[in-house]
UniProtKB/TrEMBL annotation, chain B:
This is Calcineurin-like phosphoesterase family protein. InterPro entries: Calcineurin-like_PHP, Metallo-depent_PP-like, STPP_CPPED1, TAT_signal. Residues 1-31 form the signal peptide. It comes from the Bacteria. Residues 44-231 form the Calcineurin-like phosphoesterase domain.
Length: 121, 300
């Protein structure tokens, strides 16, 4: 069976498109989520961080005022957050549920309420 | 975290191991009546987390509770050998002048205690914003040791560092303090934060507390009394018993019992519920046993 020229072009086009789509999917899979978290007295924004189980994530922290800490004990991760710098935590949540995080460097009256939740689905 | 406490340990922790208390009589009084060991036995009082300067709905009598506690201790039939405040004497303020004002007022109020041997230590509300500078102006060193009737007391500071660490320097000091003590010495440690991971999700831990516990472990008779969590709580790390005290400002929820560690609401039907202080009776020989009697702050 012969394939005419137009059909060959169409197949080539479909193949190229398929490759492009596959490449995009792979890139999307390889691109880790980066979530920016801003700390200031006495809250984190966002206060609720939604993650996917077994999907690596990088949390990027800045502080608008004083030295803060971010601690997520259920996943054994924490970092200092220093003014003028960006702190990063990369981890892969390996369990689903709701997990509290908090500031673990005393930052003033209201420090105790500087908390939030990581929700892993 | 394993919060289960075996019954035998709990009895020891709660001071229920055969001890019977008569209301209105201190444990010391009954112990003192026993021939031969009265001079060895003693008791002290622990007060904690007074948060002088706090204002808010969780305690509408925030300026009256500490004074009531002082009055209650002064009214004990038998006065304790000494009194210890396990931190958070004042509530945090960003203003250094206001911080000193609150520390000064606190000191003036507790000067009314009949017992003049009063031991202090800071909590994070007193010391974490200035590394204990203002606290030390009023109360001196933030970690120290003393001996009383054969018991070696160690006060550890796990709050002047805003990250809640004891620090290598203080841990080296602790090791040096423990080094000359015999393995069966009677040792009591006072801290503000728990030395173990009670509930790190609420910052109820000491970042390097395990190092302190490791230093204490070779000693057979160690008991830790602390504050910070505003409720009575008892826990064992190996053979070391840890006892948290109630506060004098507002109770906090049991570890992990609710999403946030917000204070329990004031109940007009039961004012001062969840607040209080404790007597700790030390009965000597062959090893010191500590019996705890929880006492309330009452309307009055």
């Amino acid at each position: 069976m012969t394939i005419n020229h137009k059909r060959r072009l169409l197949l080539a086009g479909v193949g190229a498109g398929g490759l492009a789509l596959s490449a995009a999917a792979v890139t999307a899979q390889n691109q880790e989520r980066v979530i920016k978290v801003v700390a200031k007295k006495f809250d984190f924004t966002p206060g609720e961080i939604r993650l996917k189980k077994n999907q690596p994530v990088t949390l990027e922290f800045t502080t608008l005022d004083v030295v803060m800490g971010f601690a997520l004990p259920d996943f054994g991760v924490r970092t200092d957050i220093l003014p003028g710098t960006t702190a990063r935590i990369r981890f892969t949540p390996d369990k689903a549920g709701q997990f509290p995080f908090h500031c673990d460097i005393f930052c003033g009256s209201g420090h105790e309420s500087m908390t939030g939740t990581v929700i892993v689905t | 975290m394993d919060q289960a406490i075996k019954r035998r340990s709990f009895l020891k922790l709660a001071g229920l191991g055969g001890a019977i208390y008569v209301s209105g009589l201190s444990g010391w009084a009954s112990a003192a009546a026993k021939a031969g060991n009265a001079y060895q036995d003693f008791f002290f009082v622990q007060l904690s987390d007074t948060h002088w300067g706090f204002e808010g709905a969780p305690n509408p009598d925030a300026r009256g509770t500490l004074k009531k506690a002082v009055q209650a201790v002064n009214s004990l039939e038998q006065q304790p050998d000494f009194i210890v405040f396990t931190g958070d004497l004042t509530h945090t303020t960003d203003d250094p002048l206001e911080r000193r004002k609150r520390l000064r007022e606190f000191k003036e109020i507790v000067a009314e205690l009949k017992v003049k041997d009063v031991r202090f230590m800071p909590g994070e509300h007193d010391a974490s914003l200035d590394n204990g500078a203002a606290y030390q102006e009023f109360f001196g060193k933030t970690h120290y040791s003393f001996e009383h009737k054969g018991v070696f007391f160690i006060v550890l500071d796990n709050v002047s560092d805003p990250a809640g660490s004891i620090g290598e320097q203080q841990l080296a000091w602790l090791a040096a303090e423990l080094q000359p003590l015999p393995a069966d010495a009677n040792i009591v440690v006072f801290t503000h934060r728990p030395l173990f991971d009670l509930y790190p999700q609420w910052d109820w831990a000491t970042r390097d507390g395990a190092k302190a516990v490791e230093l204490l472990m070779p000693h057979a008779n160690v008991t830790v009394f602390y504050g910070h969590i505003h409720q009575a709580h008892h826990h064992m790390t190996g053979h070391i018993a840890h006892h948290a005290a109630k506060s004098l400002i507002f109770p906090l929820p049991a570890p992990g019992s609710q999403p946030k560690r917000t204070p329990l609401a004031w109940d007009d039907a039961y004012p001062y519920r969840g607040l209080g202080y404790r007597e700790i009776e030390a009965e000597a020989a062959p090893k010191t046993d500590f019996k705890i009697v929880e006492l309330p702050v009452q309307k009055g």
